């Protein structure tokens, strides 16, 4: 069985595998972002107000115990008017 010319070199196989992984991660990220935006859009279409929750994440900066923080928001629920 003959291989495709791009697959004959082990270096090419590594590059193709890395490219495949990167494309897969990018596609999954885009799908997740689309789903989150769809939930917010559906809330606004129904006349509701999207409520976001803020979380703080701590992460180590160095091996001496210093920590940094980052805040991020995510959609929590839809508040409907009375």
Give a brief outline of the structure.
With 82 residues, the protein is α+β, with helices and mostly antiparallel strands.
What can you tell me about this protein's structure?
By secondary structure, the protein is α+β, with helices and mostly antiparallel strands. The protein has one helix spanning 10-45, and strands spanning 49-60, 67-79. Strands 1-2 form a two-stranded antiparallel sheet. A hairpin with a 6-residue loop joins strand 1 and strand 2 (67-79). The longest helix is centred in the middle third of the chain and has 36 residues, at 10-45.
Main features:
single chain; 82 residues; alpha+beta; two-stranded antiparallel sheet; 44% helix; flat
Order of helices and strands: HEE
* Biggest sheet descriptor: 2 strands, antiparallel
Calculate the terminal CA-CA distance, rounded to whole Å. 69 Å
Mean pLDDT: 85
Helix/strand-derived category reads alpha+beta
Strand order of the largest sheet: 1-2
The total of helices stands at 1
Give the helix level as a range of percent. 40-55%
Taking all Cα atoms into account, the compactness measure Rg is: 22 Å
> Which descriptor suits the 3D outline?
flat
Number of strands: 2
List segments where confidence is low: pLDDT < 50 over at least 5 consecutive residues: none
Task: Provide the β-strand percentage band.
Answer: 25-35%
Secondary structure layout:
Layout: H1 10-45, E1 49-60, E2 67-79
Antiparallel strand pairs: 1-2
